[in-house]
Design brief:
heterodimer; A: mainly alpha; two-stranded antiparallel sheet; 2% strand; globular; B: mainly alpha; ABC transporter involved in vitamin B12 uptake, BtuC; 13 helices; 69% helix; 0% strand; Nucleoside ABC transporter membrane protein (chain B); cell membrane (chain B); ABC_transp_permease (chain B); transmembrane helix (chain B); transmembrane (chain B)
C-alpha cells in the first residue's frame, strides 16, 4: 500500500475520519468497562454526566482544563517548530517552585504587584529549565527528546529534595510539603462562590497571545519555517538555532504557568503530587488540537472532560480509574491516524 | 577509600550486571528499531506491559520460560500497533511512541486491577534463581559477577551477540541497516521497506518486553506500579551513547548499571549519609546526559531515522 495526497478533500473526507475516531474510542472504552462488569451502554452517559452534568462537574472540568491549556500550548509551540519538548512536567514544577519560593512571604507585596511578579518569575524559571536542553541541542547536537525526558526525573527529585529540606513546611506534620502561600499571592476566583480561579482566564489569554505570535509575527513565521524544513529555513537565511532557542524559552515559560496557576489558584502549596502528568498529557492536548493554539482550548476541555468524567464513571460503575488513561491513549492514536486520512488516501499497488 | 573497597568487591559487580540486564535487553530492542529507521518511544510502556505479562503468566501457573515468551508476545503486539501507525501510515514517531507508552502502561494497570481486584500487596512468584556456571563461576571476581547470575541474564548476553551477528553478518541485518540508512536503495532492490521496518519494530518491542519481564521474574518476584521507573528512557539514551552499535551499547548499559549500583552503596557509607538521597538518585540521569553530550557530536545516527518512507514519493 502507499499514501496519495488528496488535492482538495471533500467535506465528508474532512469530517468522517475524526468522527469515526471519537466514536471508536467511546465504543472501545465501553467494551473495556464491560470487562470490569459495568453496563457498556451506560458508560458514555456516565462520563458526560460526570464531566458536564452539574455545575460542580463543569467547574471541576474547567479547573482540570486550566493546566492542560498551558502545557498544551507549550507543546503546540515547540512541536510546531519540530522542537520535541517532552519535558513540560519539569517546567511545570519549575514554575510551581518559584511561586512557592517567592509567594510564601519572601515578597511582602500587595496582590496587584505580587501575582504578576510570581507569574513572570514562573515563566522565567520554566524558560531557563528548557533552555538547557535547547542549548545542548543547538551546541552539541544532543537529541532533545532524551534530555527533556530525563530532566523530568531529575527535576522531580530536585523538588523532592527541597521539600524534604529547605522548603519543608515546619507545620506540615512531617509531610514533604511546602508552606502555604500568603493570601496576597493567591489567584482570586473569577465569580464569587464558584470554584474557578483567574488562572483559567490567564490560560485563555495565553492561547490568544500564542495564536497572535504564530500567525501575525516574524517569530511565528520563522518557527513554522523551521518546523516545516530546517535546511530550507537555514538556506533562506533564518537563524535556525536562535529560533529553536526562542521557541524553547516560550514553550518552557508556558508550561511553567501551569505550575504557577495550580499552586496560586488551586492548591496553595507545593507537593510532589501537584501534577498527575499534566506535562505529558499536554502532548495529547496539543496533538488533538493539530498544534493550533485556539484548538488547544477545545481539546484541553475535551481531555479534562474525559479525566473528570471517566473518574466519576469509574467510581459509579466500579471500573478501575486507569480507564481514563486508556481512553486518552486510544483517542490520541486513532485521532492522529484519522487526521492523516483526511489528507491522504490509501492506495494499493 | 570506602569507594575503592566497593569497586573491588565481587558482589558489587554482580549487582551491576543484574541491574544492567533489563537495560541490555530493552536497549537491544530499541537499537534494532532505530537501526531500521524507527524511533520507538513506546519502550517505557512496553517494558511495563512485559513486566506484568510475564509475571502474571507465571502466577497463573505457566513455567518461567513460558512467562518470558508471553511477555515477548505481548511486547510484539504493542510493537505491531506502533509499526502499523508509524511505518505504512508514516505518522509522527514521537507522538505514536508516547501514545503507545500511555496505552501500554494504562492497559497494564487496568488489567492488573481486573485480575487482582482485592489485594493490598501483589502476590509473589517463584522467580528465576542464580545458576552458577561450572568452572567459570570459580574465577575470582569475574566468576561471581558474570557467571553466577540467573539464566535470564545469560539470555540477555546471548541476545546481544545474536543481534550483533544478525546486524553485521546476515542479509537480514544488511536489509535492516539499509532500511535505516537509505530506504530508497532497499526499495530499488525489490525489497519491502515497510516489511523490514515493521519486522524490526515488532522484534525490538519483544526484546523491550523481555527487559521488563526481567524485573518481575528475576530481579524481583512481584509486580509493582512504577516499577520500570524511567528505565525505558535511559535505554533510548544508551542507544545514542552506544552509537547504534550493540557492543558499545552493552558496554554503556553495564557502565550505567555499575554507576547505579555504586550510588546505592555510597549512600550507605559515612560520607554518603550526609548528602540528600535524591542527589544519588539524580546522578544516573545526569550522567546519561553528560555521556550524551560527550558522544553526540561523533555519533553515527542512522540517516533515515524518523524519516517515513512512502513508495513512489521522491
Amino acid at each position: 500500500m502507499r499514501l496519495e495526497p488528496i488535492a482538495d478533500p471533500s467535506l465528508a473526507r474532512s469530517i468522517a475520519p475524526p468522527a469515526i475516531a471519537i466514536i471508536a474510542t467511546v465504543v472501545i472504552a465501553s467494551l473495556l468497562a464491560m470487562l470490569a462488569g459495568a453496563n457498556p451502554f451506560s458508560v458514555l452517559g456516565l462520563i458526560l454526566k460526570g464531566a458536564f452534568g452539574s455545575q460542580f462537574a463543569l467547574l471541576e472540568t474547567l479547573n482540570r482544563a486550566t493546566p492542560l491549556i498551558f502545557t498544551g500550548l507549550a507543546i503546540a509551540v515547540a512541536f510546531k517548530a519540530k522542537f520535541w519538548n517532552i519535558g513540560a512536567e519539569a517546567q511545570l514544577y519549575a514554575g510551581a517552585l518559584i511561586t512557592v519560593v517567592l509567594g510564601t512571604g519572601a515578597l511582602p507585596w500587595p496582590s496587584f504587584a505580587l501575582i504578576p511578579a510570581l507569574a513572570i518569575g514562573a515563566v522565567l524559571a520554566g524558560a531557563v529549565v528548557l533552555l538547557v536542553p535547547a542549548i545542548l541541542k543547538t551546541r552539541f547536537g544532543v537529541d532533545e527528546v532524551v534530555t527533556t525526558l530525563l530532566f523530568n526525573f531529575i527535576f522531580l527529585l530536585f523538588i523532592s529534595m527541597l521539600l524534604e529540606g529547605p522548603l519543608k513546611d515546619p507545620m506540615g506534620m512531617g509531610w514533604p510539603k511546602s508552606a502555604r502561600l500568603i493570601s496576597e499571592a493567591r489567584l482570586p476566583r473569577i465569580f464569587d462562590g464558584l470554584r474557578l480561579h483567574w488562572g483559567f482566564a490567564l490560560a485563555l489569554l495565553c492561547a490568544c497571545a500564542v495564536w497572535v505570535i504564530q500567525t501575525r509575527s516574524t517569530l511565528g513565521y520563522e518557527m513554522r519555517a523551521v518546523g516545516l524544513n530546517r535546511d530550507a529555513a537555514a538556506f533562506a537565511g533564518i537563524p535556525v538555532n536562535a529560533v529553536l532557542v526562542k521557541t524553547a524559552l516560550l514553550s518552557g515559560g508556558l508550561a511553567a504557568l501551569a505550575g504557577f496557576s495550580e499552586v496560586a489558584g488551586l492548591k496553595g502549596s507545593l507537593t510532589l503530587d501537584l501534577s498527575p502528568g499534566f506535562g505529558y498529557t499536554g502532548i495529547i492536548v496539543a496533538m488533538l488540537a493539530l498544534l493550533n493554539p485556539l484548538g488547544v482550548i477545545v481539546s484541553a476541555l475535551f481531555v479534562a472532560g474525559i479525566f473528570v468524567g471517566a473518574d466519576s464513571m469509574s467510581r459509579a460503575a466500579g471500573v478501575p480509574t486507569y480507564l481514563a488513561d486508556m481512553m486518552l491513549a486510544t483517542a490520541l492514536l486513532l485521532m492522529v491516524l484519522a487526521i492523516m486520512l483526511t489528507r491522504f488516501r490509501v492506495v494499493r499497488d | 577509600m570506602e569507594i575503592l573497597d566497593i569497586l573491588i568487591s565481587a558482589s558489587f559487580w554482580a549487582a551491576a550486571i543484574r541491574i544492567a540486564t533489563p537495560l541490555i535487553l530493552a536497549t537491544m530492542g530499541e537499537l534494532i528499531c532505530e537501526r531500521a529507521g524507527v524511533l520507538n518511544l513506546g519502550i517505557e510502556g512496553i517494558m511495563v506491559a512485559g513486566a506484568f505479562a510475564g509475571w502474571m503468566a507465571v502466577y497463573s501457573g505457566t513455567g518461567l520460560w513460558v512467562g518470558v515468551a508471553v511477555a515477548m508476545v505481548v511486547g510484539m503486539g504493542f510493537g505491531l500497533l506502533h509499526s502499523v501507525l508509524t511505518v505504512p501510515f508514516g505518522l509522527s514517531q514521537h507522538v505514536v511512541g508516547l501514545g503507545v507508552t500511555l496505552l501500554a502502561t494504562s492497559s497494564t494497570y487496568y488489567a492488573y486491577r481486573l485480575a487482582l481486584p482485592q489485594v493490598n500487596s501483589p502476590p509473589k512468584i517463584d522467580a528465576f534463581q542464580p545458576y552458577e556456571i561450572p568452572l567459570l563461576s570459580d574465577i575470582p571476581l569475574l566468576g561471581q559477577a558474570l557467571f553466577s547470575q540467573t539464566p535470564f541474564t545469560y539470555l540477555a548476553f546471548a541476545l546481544v551477540a545474536a543481534t550483533s551477528v544478525m546486524l553485521y553478518r546476515t542479509p537480514v541485518g544488511l536489509a535492516v541497516r539499509a532500511a535505516g540508512e537509505s530506504p530508497a536503495a532497499v526499495a530499488a532492490q525489490g525489497l519491502s521497506v515497510t516489511a523490514i521496518r515493521m519486522g524490526a519494530v515488532i522484534v525490538g518491542s519483544g526484546f523491550m518486553a523481555m527487559g521488563g519481564a526481567f524485573l518481575t521474574m528475576s530481579a524481583f518476584d512481584s509486580f509493582f506500579f512504577e516499577m520500570v521507573n524511567g528505565r525505558g528512557w535511559i535505554c533510548i539514551a544508551l542507544v545514542v551513547f552506544g552509537s547504534w552499535m550493540p557492543g558499545k551499547a552493552l558496554l554503556g548499559a553495564v557502565l550505567f548499571a555499575a554507576f547505579d549500583a555504586l550510588q546505592i552503596r555510597v549512600q550507605q557509607t559515612g560520607f554518603g549519609a550526609d548528602i540528600p538521597y535524591q542527589i544519588f538518585l539524580m546522578a544516573p540521569y545526569i550522567l546519561s546526559i553528560v555521556a550524551l553530550v560527550l558522544v553526540s557530536r561523533r555519533a553515527q545516527v542512522p540517516a533515515a531515522l524518523m524519516v517515513p518512507f512512502n513508495k513512489g514519493e521522491r
